[in-house]
Write the structure tokens for this entry.
Amino acid sequence: MNELTIRPATFADRDALFPLVKTFATSFMPDEESFRGSFSRLVVNERACLLVAEAGTAIGYLLGFAHDTFYANGPVAWVEELMVGESWRRQHVGQRLIQEFEAWAANRGCRLVALATRRAEPFYKSLGYEDSATYFRRLLA
């Protein structure tokens, strides 16, 4: 078995991540052309954190952001997407991705890390996250 590595994404990871993105998405059907454009912008965005979990090949990823707020008296970090391939779940891959993101956020002075989920509540609670708010959304045309 290959050793698990968590590292920042590079342009070379693009094609390996798209299959994981397709598995993650439930509300939208990922479009490869749109993904490629977003990936190219995100991998160089200083406010974005795109991490790859690999064990010989990409087995998971985390996409998060840091942004300034008034309510927290400074920046906060937001996990937008966290995906681990099904055969690698329950092997601490998600935990390692979150830990790396938390370190990234702390290094940027973030006061907290937040996220929205409907499929992984027990996982996040096991890492010490707590319910804080209700998530609302409105799709735009």
In short: The domain at 5-126 is CATH 3.40.630.30 (Aminopeptidase). The two ends are 46 Å apart (CA to CA). The chain has one domain: 5-126.
